[in-house]
Structures are given as C-alpha cells and as structure tokens.
Design brief:
alpha/beta, 2 domains, 8-stranded mixed beta sheet, two-stranded antiparallel sheet, 6 helices
C-alpha cells in the first residue's frame, strides 16, 4: 500500500509512492473488512504528485454557470467594486439555463430587488435566505445543496467572511455530486487571502464609470483558477439606475 508522508516544510499529506496504490478490487476487499483508513484514497483533495487538480475545458472561459458548475468559488471586490452586478449576472445566466438558484446572505443588507430584476433575475424563482454569519451561511448552503434541487447557491459573506475548512469540504463534495456552482461573495482586496485552499476559482470584480456617467464597465479578473490558471478576464457594460447623475 502507498504510504503517506509529510513534506519537509509542509504539514499537508502527499502520496510518497503513488505507483504502489492498491487496485480498486483490493480497496473494495479492504473496505469490506472494515479498514476505515481507506476513505482517504477516495478524497478529491488527494492526488498523485504532478497531476493537475482539475481538467482544463476546451471552450473559452466565461463568467457563467457552466464555467463554475461543480466548483466552490469566491468572488471578491472592494468598496467600489462590481460584486453584486457580477453575482446577479451569474444568477440570471443560471436561471436562463433552467437552474433553480438560491441566495444566502450573512450581511445586514440584502441586494435591492428592483436592481436585480433589471439585471434579468426572476425574483419569483430566487430563494433568499437571511442568516447571521458565514458559518451559518455555509450550513444553510449545505442543506440547500443536499436537496439536489439547486444548480447555483450564492453566499453573500461580506467583510467578515470566514468558513471552517471541513464545511468548505462538504460544499465541494455536494457541488461535484449535483453539478452545482457555489459562489461566495467577499469584500476584500486582491492581496487579501482567499477563503481557503478548497476554493477552485477566485475572481476580483471592479467597475469603471463611462464618460457619460450612466454606464459602467464591470470587469472581473481571475486571481486563482484550478482549471485554467489565473489571469483570464471577463467584462460587460451595464447601465446605472435611473436618476444617476
């Protein structure tokens, strides 16, 4: 059986001899005999050294439900960012594809419904849950995803975003199982740390006002992407609300 070893300067586990991993039939026999340690061989975070974490899609990248399905993602922005605009665009895209969506808010203020409707969101089909903090938001997402009914769950975590790693791991498993996208919204700068290593994609959203003052360019840059690598961008032009000077 392959042995597990600690790297000299790391506390993370890795396969010391990946070529010696037991055959699936051997794993099944050992599982039947009650060897609980075998669960580690089926954990998605365990991989052979040198393998990519996730396969790279052939199509061009896009900020869409199809791009984020099966993944735990984080979308960040500063105080002047386009966080809600980018998130609502994602909700509208998922709904147009026939995917039920849910919005879990751990912040005191929730999105402005008329603005969401103006972005193309069907408010009658959007489930909204209000909770007190990030961990509770994660547990609410856990319940929603376990139902198998949602293709997109957005967690608005705000400035004090925090979620235990075991809870993130459960969300990753459920996203993979149901081909659902889990997107955490956080208010932070690009240099700030992400929610954790289990985040598959992290993007930073910014907005720039046009010269006429009525339109905005919403631009998203990926700081982390386990499928494609960081650096790809997405942008679109949006109109400001009525009465904006």
């Amino acid at each position: 059986m392959a042995t597990l070893a600690h790297g000299p300067a790391s506390s993370s586990l890795r396969l010391a001899s990946p070529s010696l991993s037991p055959a699936p039939s051997v794993l099944a026999d050992m599982a039947m005999s009650g060897n609980l340690a075998l669960d580690i061989f089926h954990h998605p975070a365990l991989r052979r050294l040198g393998e990519s974490l996730e396969p790279t899609p052939a199509e061009a990248p896009a900020w869409s439900h199809a791009e984020l399905a099966g993944r735990l993602c984080e979308l960040s922005a500063g105080a002047d960012g386009a966080l809600l605009s980018a998130a609502m665009g994602l909700v509208a895209d998922a709904q147009q594809g026939g995917e039920p969506t849910a919005w879990v808010s751990a912040t005191r203020a929730v999105f402005f419904p008329p603005d969401a409707a103006a972005c193309g969101v069907d408010l009658a089909a959007l489930v909204v849950v209000q909770v007190n903090d990030g961990p509770t938001a994660g547990r609410a997402a856990d319940v929603l995803l376990r139902s198998g009914a949602f293709g997109l769950v957005v967690l608005d975590l705000g400035t004090s975003a925090a979620m235990p790693t075991p809870l993130q791991g459960r969300l990753v498993q459920l996203a993979l199982k149901h081909d659902a996208a889990v997107v955490c919204l956080t208010t932070k700068k690009p240099a700030d740390a992400s929610l954790g290593s289990l985040v598959s994609l992290r993007g930073q959203a910014v907005r720039r006002r046009s010269r006429d003052g009525r339109r905005f360019t919403c631009r998203l840059t990926t700081l982390k992407d386990k499928r494609r690598g960081p650096g790809w961008t997405w942008q679109e032009v949006r109109h400001g609300p009525d009465g904006l000077a």
